[in-house]
Amino acid sequence: MKVAVTTLAVCVASLLALGLVMLYSASMMIWDKHTNSEIGAHYLMMQLIWCACGFALCVTVASLDYQLFKKYAGPIYFVALLLLALVLEKHIGVVRGNARRWFSFHGVSFQPSELGKIALIIALAWYGDRCQRRMHTFRWGVLVPITIIASELVLIFREPDWGTTILLTAVGGAMLVLAGARWIFLIPPLLATAAGGVVMLLHNPMRMKRIFSWLEVEANKEDVGYQAYQARIALGSGGFSGLGLGNGRQKLGFVPEHHTDFIFSIIGEELGLIATLLVIAAFAVLVWCGIYIALRATDRFGTLLAAGVTLLIGLQAIINIGVVTSALPNKGLPLPFISYGGSNLLAMLTCVGILFSVARRATPEKIPVADFVADETPNPFAAKAT
Questions:
Q1: CA of 250: how far to CAs of 97, 233, 236, in Å?
Q2: Are 109 and 343 in contact (CB under 8 A)?
Q3: What φ, ψ does residue 266 adopt, rounded to 5°?
């Protein structure tokens, strides 16, 4: 367990360090229209503050008994629902890019859907633990938990935030299967959800354009597919070893949101294929550590909780990297620990703290019989002390 926890900490620290370096490199040339000056180190300083807050939150959560989340699963879930409902109120929520997703207090923004991610995982872990003997039935294994999932996803979808909705649908479905729900019972609601998504997609011209631009990036490189096309240029121009830190050209106004959702393209351009593969390897190792911790948990709630936060981090990284490399349509999800943004960073570091908390109370590893005999059995031939 010590190896898994240490490896997890090293992976997270490495991704955070890379994120800070790349954020400064990506944002130092951004021009602020309000102050009519360059951003410089402003984003870096803000991210450092969020890192300090996230580290404190991670340590606090890690020091707590994760059973507290089980005790307060209901209040946490309903507080998340309340905040998600309040952000939709036009006099409270802040609109950015045709989406109402943020609270803003004196220049500091908070995205309640990030709390909603963790709250939903805690609620499903609590439910899977409480109803473990009935999870094989359709009513208790699918109908009731889908109501829990849908209650939150409807609010997130209305913001609108399609990326987070898809992410939490995948995480929630996987957690139900891990909790004991029969996967064949999940097929009808998944098909119904997919059909509903297709219908809404057909009535949303902007997102239909994104789908077509994803299918034919070259044909739409001057329109909706501009961002994806420029990201591909950034990744391709970096080659094997990159152009060098700070020498990237696509961050000079070519790749929109290059310090947030598309920062992976700047990593590829400046540090090359080697760095991008190391980032992917770090996330893969992080997921492996999370799975190991989940399997060693002392109870079902701990297993589901650790598995849920691991799925959240891993799937969000997969979706972001898939979008940047044009393997997936644009979904607007940040790259965990690397992209600029305080709300997501706090949520991801809270997830890491949860993993540490579960690991601290995990089932101790079995001691091999040979080691026990060698250490504990007295040697009858040993010389006696005089």
A1: 22, 8, 11
A2: yes
A3: -70, -35
Q: What is the pLDDT of residues 216-230, one digit of tens each?
A: 877 778 778 888 889
Q: CB atoms < 10 A from the CB of 368, how many?
A: 9
φ, ψ at 32 (rounded to 5°): -85, 115
What angle is formed at CA 344 by the lines to CA 341 and CA 350, rounded to 5 degrees?
Answer: 135
- Each domain of the chain, given as residue ranges in start order, spans 1-71+204-327+341-363, 72-189
The H-or-E segment that residue 120 falls in is: helix 112-130
pLDDT of residue 377: 46
Strands 94-96 and 99-105: antiparallel
Question: What crossing angle do the helices spanning 144-157 and 73-86 adopt, rounded to 10°?
Answer: 30
DSSP 298: S
296-322 per-position pLDDT tens digit: 999 999 999 999 999 999 999 999 999
Q: Where are the alpha helices (DSSP H) in 247-299?
A: 263-295
Q: What's phi and psi for 180, nearest 5 deg?
A: 115, 0
The pTM of this model reads: 0.90
- Higher per-residue pLDDT: 150 or 378: 150
| Closest among 11, 2, 1 to 351, alpha carbons compared | 11
pLDDT band for position 374 (cuts 50, 70, 90): very low
pLDDT for 201 equals 80
Residue with structure tokens 């597919």?
A: 225
